[in-house]
Prior knowledge:
Blueprint: E1 5-7, E2 10-12, E3 15-20, E4 25-29, H1 34-41, E5 52-57, E6 66-74, E7 77-82, E8 87-91, E9 105-112
Antiparallel strand pairs: 1-5, 2-3, 3-4, 5-9, 6-7, 6-9, 7-8
Amino acid sequence: MNAIMVIKPYKWNGMWVFDDENTGLVREPFVAGADDIIDVMVEQLENAEAGFALMFSHLPFPGYDLELVRQHKEADGWWYLSPVLNMDGWLCPALFLYYDEAPLRLYAQFSVIS
């Protein structure tokens, strides 16, 4: 398993979604607050709705923009809190295509695709 993973979310029908050929996910949506966190984090990224790079890891890495702290399980997914943004978001069971167990913390970087 890679320590740092990359997905490329984009807007589709007004929702943040992503595809990942490695896991078979197609237009997997971010919902229940995770979409709102993305809205805040990409405000300054040019043309983010067309797609941006989202790097994430269960380990801190140089240049990460956001730390999310695991809160509680619901509907086979997990709620995560961003203490800095004071926002929480639910990550659906697709999380387990990347991790065997829900990480205690997730670190993310949001950047323009070059």
